[in-house]
């Protein structure tokens, strides 16, 4: 996929922020020194900003992929004519790379669930950010890769609609949609059935890193349309980076995300800060 210096930079900033947050989380919560640290208002805000920034940037990366696939297949040609232009195993893998990456993200998300349930059950992760990103990429690939449904929406309208839907569904886990004084209470059976993946957990559901499909899919698509707006109005910005030294971190964000917590826990365990059961 085409590398854009600006996206690599902002992704790197998000990665560094995430590592710092998890280091503090491990020292405070996992170590048992201050288990309520995660519920402090400023900590909740810090965690939310970190999660939403990752999702937003991932949506922008989706738009980069969509542009590249559109160029490879020739958007003006019919599907049969376009596919005829893509020949060979390498081209096939290139076209379906987002689909393969979606399944990779889902697999890694499940690996994190297995690992935390077995090694650190008190901090078990169900439906974490990798599971969400894999699901969002899979759905968006189907909508965009085959029919270009996301791209068919006016860019400004798509941006505004995604933002509006994110705001309206932001409190779906609490049982309602809306904002401020306007609220619509959702039916209780949604939560009794424990559709936690979609954003309707029951009272017994617990996860130390929970990123539900709603409302976060709209933040993902917000990033998609934000990239398109940026490309149309400030395309030169995409090739600019305030700090070249951070770009390699952004280019290897998935590996860092998957490995940083085991490394942090191992370091803190070796230092005697935490005790793994």
Describe this entry's structure for a reader:
This protein is mainly α. It has 12 helices and 2 strands. It has helices at residues 5-30, 41-73, 79-85, 88-95, 97-119, 129-147, 149-152, 155-168, 189-192, 213-233, 247-251, 253-270, and strands at residues 176-179, 182-185. Strands 1-2 form a two-stranded antiparallel sheet. Strand 1 and strand 2 form a beta hairpin. Helix 2 runs parallel beside helix 6 (129-147) and helix 5 packs antiparallel against helix 6 (129-147).
Give a quick precis of the structure.
The protein is mainly alpha-helical and 277 residues long. It has helices spanning 5-30, 41-73, 79-85, 88-95, 97-119, 129-147, 149-152, 155-168, 189-192, 213-233, 247-251, 253-270; strands at residues 176-179, 182-185. It has a two-stranded antiparallel ribbon.
Sheet with most strands: 2 strands, antiparallel
Task: State the total count of DSSP E strands.
Answer: 2
* Series of secondary-structure elements, N-terminal to C-terminal: HHHHHHHHEEHHHH
Beginning-to-end CA distance, first to last residue: 42 Å
Lateral arrangement of strands in the main beta sheet: 1-2
Helix/strand/pairing category = mainly alpha
Uncertain parts? 73-93
Please indicate the percent range of residues in DSSP E strands (runs of 2 or more): under 5%
Shape descriptor reads: globular
Whole-number mean pLDDT: 85
Radius of gyration: 20 Å
Count of discrete alpha- or pi-helical segments spanning 4 or more residues: 12
Tell me the helix content. 55-70%
């Amino acid at each position: 996929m085409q590398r854009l210096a600006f996206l690599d930079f902002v992704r790197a900033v998000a990665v560094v922020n995430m590592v710092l947050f998890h280091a503090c989380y491990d020292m405070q919560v996992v170590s048992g020194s201050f288990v309520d640290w995660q519920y402090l208002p400023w900590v909740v805000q810090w965690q939310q900003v970190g999660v939403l920034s990752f999702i937003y940037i991932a949506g922008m990366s989706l738009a980069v992929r969509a542009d590249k696939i559109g160029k490879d297949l020739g958007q003006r040609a019919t599907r049969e004519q376009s596919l005829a232009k893509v020949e060979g195993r390498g081209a096939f893998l290139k076209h379906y790379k987002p689909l393969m990456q979606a399944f990779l993200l889902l697999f890694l998300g499940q690996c994190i669930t297995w690992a935390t349930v077995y090694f650190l059950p008190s901090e078990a992760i169900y439906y974490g950010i990798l599971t969400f990103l894999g699901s969002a990429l899979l759905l968006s690939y189907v909508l965009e890769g085959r029919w270009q449904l996301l791209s068919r929406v006016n860019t400004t309208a798509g941006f505004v609609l995604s933002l509006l839907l994110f705001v309206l569904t932001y409190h779906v886990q609490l049982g309602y949609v809306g904002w401020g004084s306007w609220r619509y209470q959702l039916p209780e059976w949604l939560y009794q059935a424990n559709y936690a993946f979609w954003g309707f957990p029951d009272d017994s559901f617990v996860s130390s890193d929970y990123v539900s499909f709603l409302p976060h899919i709209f933040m993902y698509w917000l990033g998609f349309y934000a990239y398109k707006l940026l490309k149309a109005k400030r395309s030169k910005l995409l090739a600019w980076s305030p700090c070249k030294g951070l770009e390699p971190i952004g280019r290897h964000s998935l590996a860092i995300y998957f490995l940083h917590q085991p490394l942090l826990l191992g370091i803190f365990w070796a230092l005697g800060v935490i005790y793994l059961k």
